[in-house]
Amino acid sequence: MPAGRRSTLLRWLLKPLADPMVLLLLVAGGAYLLLRDYADAIVILVAVVPITLVTVVLESRAERTLEQLRSLTAPTAAVWRDGWRQVIPAGEIVPGDVVFLQEGDVIPADGALLRGRQLMVDESVLTGESQPVLKDVDEAPAVDLYAGTTLLAGRGVAQVTATGSATRYGQIGTLLAGIRQPPTPLQRLINRLIRQLAVVAALFCFGVAGIQLAAGRGWAAAIIAGVSLAIAAIPEEFPMVYTLYLTLGAWRLARDHALIRRLPGVETLGATTVICTDKTGTLTLGHLEVGGLATADGVSGAADGRRPAERALLEAAVLASEPNPFDPLDQAVLRFAAANGVDVAGLQGAELVRDYPFDPAGRYLSHVWRRDGRVWIAAKGALEGILARSEASPEARERALAANARLAEDGMRVIAVAAGDLSGSSGDRAADESALRFAGLVAFTDPLRPGVLDALAECRAAGIRVIMITGDHPVTAHAVAEGLDLPHDDRRIATGDDLDAADAAGVADLVAGSAIFARTRPEQKHRLVVALRERGEVVAMTGDGINDAPALREADIGIAMGERGTEVAREAATMVLLDDNFATIVRAVRDGRRIFDNLRRAFTYLVAFHAPLLVAALVIPLLGRPLLLLPIHLVWLELIVHPTASLVFEGDPPAPDLMRRPPRRAGSLLSRADFLRSLALGAALSIAALVTYLVRLPAGVDAARSLAIATLVLGQTLAVFLIRAGERPLWRAGLGGNRLLPWVIGASLLSLLAALYVPPVARLLSLAPLGAAQLGLAALIAAASTLWWEIPLLARRGR
User: Fold this and answer.
1) Nearest one of 715, 738, 714, 748 to 648, comparing CA atoms
2) Given Cys at both, which of 131, 149, 677, 711 links 778, Cβ 3.0 to 4.6 Å?
3) In 18-176, which ranges are E strands?
């Protein structure tokens, strides 16, 4: 599909003009020109360059990271190239390519079907019709497939006739490329905060400017005072820091095999309260091996291919499996059968006459084959469905149910198999399946994934509930739950039939009291998600099939499987597991919490940072004193705060107790207590700087300004350490494994020394050098105005 408009060099150069900070500096530079203060005007206008460069560099870093993430999310397709089958990015397909399609694929281009029978295609994205469309090369002389539609059942081979914007779907894609994603709740909160502060700042600006005019200081001085207040009041770093943290967080998650397809997912991960997970392939390895057989005559054990009943069961299982299968269960059947003497290639080399798709009601499928004049049918699926559709004596049914319970108790996944001879295939499914005779059971082992037990224990400690969802028998599900070492309270089992029989209130009771759902169908996951969200839970739901898509879309975090999942599931999901591992979900939640913790610290710092700037810019003009902070000083301080908030806090490692806390409330950022505490820290530093300036003012403006600004910079440096420490003692937090911290703090302190003791810089900033005693005094005042932050923490730790 056509890509969105890329940022050109001209756009990058013009983009800073939309930054309120840059616009305010340009206004300030114009005001200095009106005052004929050309030196300050030049300094201000030159100062636009570094503040712009910092913003552009950080935003371009975020954009480059997003481009790398987009390349990872790009869909792929299997094509015939250079004489062999290979997987390429779907964007590289060209007209004339031969594409291989299988169930669950989103068709990547318009094309003509070359080979394929009984393909069911969902074309609702183009036609709006919900019913699938049958595509069969035997039914029509020319069968067309369209890009963007979904193959619901079957396999096929097609030749591409049109790609990208030349396809029917491409016209829709061209429109979609211009649509921007809506902002997240937190983004809306930040934008609303900035708009409100901008309105308040504008009112104060006009008020301060009016006071300056009333005092007879002239229009230019009034504009300088108003602009200084506006620069101090508008926290324009908030959206940049927010976007940068989510983008870099998504990149780190991708390196840990969790690919975030939508950035809001990073924000939501840290608030997850419930993880609904598939069993097979997520909690377990998904590497199925045949672990046991039970024939219709009641004999159980490993097959050696010599007993006729065992051989018949294995041959029927092979015929009920797909040729060249994608499904791990089919692969396990073919491996085991071949290893035990069954001619797999010969059996599946016959003509596949009918491929009856999976029946969700009976949870089974069947195939009709023809070879050398003989026609036969084979089916496999859930025991209940196979027994309902095949002939078996009452004794055989009893034996099958007992064998199924025994194998399930051993933690095995069990399927039933049936087969029968046909005189010919009528194409009527019910008529063909009436010939089925029950053949027996095939049981599969699937070991737990390494690290799953530790991940589940981490979830319990973090207050995150885990619900296991499986299509297996309840007894199998219970045996797996025993192996997962779930607490006894979490081993209560509900079934898909329970969900079907329950109304909305009943489903709510089931999700409240059950942590295992067995014999469930993919579409029932949607009801579980809805019920959990109505209880106020933040839900992560896993899935890999086409029918999982509604649940993945409904969940707060839809998690698709990257290795075995369908393209439909991946398109619907917020996150894709590149290794299909449950432990990766828990790592992603842990990193989501870390990202949000660091974002909260950064915002706490920004609030504390802006408070003294705002107080100084507002109070000093009202007192009729010379400005403490000129626009050039605000630019300098912004150059300190940008990398501090954007890089230092973002690089902090997780807190030791991160996964021992309950989940945070979704949509929140700073609690009222955190906000007020941050504001108090900023206010204390404001008062210290303000009093220092006013007391020192009789000695000269430059000397007073130097002492106050030194107090401010040193206090804000201490604030970084205090906010990073959180609930830990300051002396114990230290650098905390943050490699950027000493560089950024060192650069900030060096800039202060340069501003005070390098004469050309000091003159530009209207500062005077401080003696050792005065510098020590500034440090003492900064410490006194910030270290009180530790007192409540010490009191809590004392209790």
Assistant:
1) 738
2) 711
3) 76-81, 84-89, 98-102, 110-115, 119-122, 133-135, 144-145, 150-153, 155-162
Q: Which residue is it, tokens 């318009």? A: 110
Residue 551: CB partners within 8 Å, gap ≥ 6?
522, 523, 525, 526, 528, 529, 541, 543, 558
What's the order of all strands across the beta sheet hosting 516-518? 258-260, 575-577, 557-561, 539-543, 274-278, 465-469, 516-518, 493-495
Sign of CA dihedral 670, 673, 675, 677: negative
Distances (CA, A) of 466 to 63, 413, 531, 585, 697: 35, 21, 15, 11, 63
On whether the CB atoms of residues 259 and 562 are closer than 8 A, the answer is yes
- Per this entry, what is the length of the chain? 799
Q: Name the DSSP class of 284.
A: B
Catalytic residue (choose from 278, 330, 446, 591) = 278
- Which region among 170-184, 237-251, 265-279, 734-748 has the lowest average model confidence (pLDDT)? 170-184
Q: Which residues contact 305 (CB under 8 A, 6 or more apart)?
A: 311, 314, 340, 341, 342
Q: Which residues pair with 275 in a beta bridge?
A: 466, 540
* pLDDT of amino acid 755: 92
Which DSSP state fits 468?
E
Residues 238 and 735: their CA atoms lie apart, in Å, by 24
User: Residue 799's pLDDT is what?
Assistant: 46
What is the C-alpha to C-alpha distance for residues 704 and 720, in angstroms, rounded to an integer?
25
Bridge-based pairing state of the strands 274-278 and 465-469: parallel
Q: What pLDDT, on the 0 to 100 scale, is given for residue 176?
A: 47
Phi, psi of 391 (to 5 degrees): -85, 130
Which residues are CB-contacts of 255 (< 8 A; sequence separation ≥ 6)? none
Tell me the pLDDT tens digit for each residue of 529-586.
999 999 989 999 998 876 787 888 888 898 988 777 667 777 778 888 888 888 999 9
Number of separate helices (H) and strands (E) present in the chain: 31, 24
For residue 180, CA distances in Å to 5, 128, 177, 187, 766 come to 11, 23, 8, 14, 46
Among residues 514, 519, 520, the alpha carbon closest in space to that of 532 is found at 514
Residues 287 and 446: beta-carbon distance below 8 Å:
yes
177: which 2 tokens? 């490329």
Average pLDDT, rounded, for the chain: 81
CA 415 to chain centre: 35
Amino acid present at 365: L
Q: How many Cα atoms occupy the beta-carbon half-sphere of 28 within 13 Å?
A: 30
Q: Is 673 exposed, middle or buried (0-12, 13-18, 19+ CB in 10 A)?
A: exposed
Could you give the CA distance from residue 30 to residue 794 in angstroms, rounded to a whole number?
50
40 is catalytic: no
Spatial contact of 362 and 381, defined as CB atoms under 8 Å apart: yes
Residue pair 535/555 in contact (Cβ under 8 Å)? The answer is no
CB-side exposure of 393: number of CA atoms within 13 Å? Answer: 6
Q: Among 61-75, 150-164, 184-198, 482-496, where is mean pLDDT lowest?
A: 61-75
What are the backbone angles phi and psi of residue 755, rounded to the nearest 5°?
-65, -30
Distances (CA, A) of 329 to 141, 160, 326: 35, 31, 9
Tell me the CA distances in angstroms from 227 to 24, 159, 217, 487, 607, one per residue in order. Answer: 6, 64, 15, 62, 19
